[in-house]
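Issue 218. Parser rejects a valid record. Input:
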Amino acid sequence: MPYAADHVAETRRRIVESARRLFNRKGFNEVSIDEIMAGAGLTRGGFYHHFKTKDELYAEAISIALTCDPVARISGKPTDPNQSADALMRRLIEAYLSRQHLERTEEHCALFALPSDVARASPTVRTAYQNVFSAMAGLFERGLGNEAAGRQKALALAALCVGGMTLANTVADPALAEEIRSSALASALDLLPEPHARELRRVGS
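Output the parser choked on:
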C-alpha cells in the first residue's frame, strides 16, 4: 500500500532537516548518507526514494532558507506579517549578525556555514546557494525602497552579513570572532538610511 502524500512530504522534510544540521556541524564531505538518515530516524534504503544523490539533498538543504521565516529560525521569534519591508530588513540584519546566531551552530545560515563546500560543489548546489543570497539581497533592496543606488547598497549589506559571519565563524580566537561580528553589525546599521541607524544602534545585541 503506497504512503500518503503527506507522509512522503514529512519524511522528506525530516531528511532535509537532518542533513542541514549535520552539514552545518561537520561539512558536506564529512557527513555520510547513513548519518543523515539515522538523524531522521530512518534507514539508508529510504534515501533514494527521495533523492538521487547527496548533492541533490545538499542543494535542497541550502534552499530551505527560501521556504522559512529567516528571522524566526535565527531568533526564535516569529516575524509580524504586517511589518513593513524596511522593518523586516532591520530585524534580519540584527538577527543575522547576532551573537545568538553565531553560537547556534546547527542553526547557522548555509551562506556562511558552508561557503568553501559550495565553491567545490556541483552547479546545482552553487545555484541553490546563489538563489538564497539573491533572496537576501532582494529583501534588503525592498527595505531600502527608492533610495539611490539601492541595489548596490543591498548587495553590500548582504555581503557584509555573510562575510562578517563567515570570518567570525572561522577564526580561532573567540574575542576576535566577537569583535568581527559586532563590527559587522555596526557597519551594516551605518549603511541604513536615517532614522534606521539611529534607532538600531545596539551593537552588543
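Fixed in the parser; the record now loads. DSSP finds twelve helices and no strands in the chain.
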